[in-house]
């Protein structure tokens, strides 16, 4: 399992997930840079993602939805803030309606994904900072730790393919 640690801190409004992959950072970066690869790991198992827009450059946007086993769609968006290929990228992540408009009463987080070489592997650090402690508590109650961890754990299969 790639996920090696999960921490959340209500006071700092952060959720941090650490993972390790048996591939160089450049290869892990490609998963996030290529929407067709990203679709294979963005949603938890059984909830595949479809990216209808994907621009991983500063100021770029990504629009996606995940489809449940019953066919229900859950949409979201990214607003890309910074990119340091292949080491990191920063983006705002939010919930959206099916026309990709932000849902105002749902939490928004600023995410920093960092990929560093570590003993021939990649150590990935995923840090999400929520606007409010209540926002973090809401996504924790929704199962974000389990969903994000199971999604990240799919990366090994993609790397082995």
From TrEMBL:
- List the InterPro entries hit by this protein, alphabetically: ASHA1/2-like_C, START-like_dom_sf
Identify the stretch annotated as signal peptide in this record.
none
Instruction: Report the superkingdom from the record.
Output: Bacteria
Q: What sequence ranges are listed for the domain Activator of Hsp90 ATPase homologue 1/2-like C-terminal?
A: 22-159
The protein's name:
SRPBCC domain-containing protein
Supply the CDD domains for this chain.
SRPBCC_CalC_Aha1-like (cd07814)
Instruction: Give TM regions.
Output: none
State the species of origin: Pseudonocardia zijingensis
Q: Which family does it belong to?
A: Belongs to the AHA1 family.
Pfam families for this protein: AHSA1
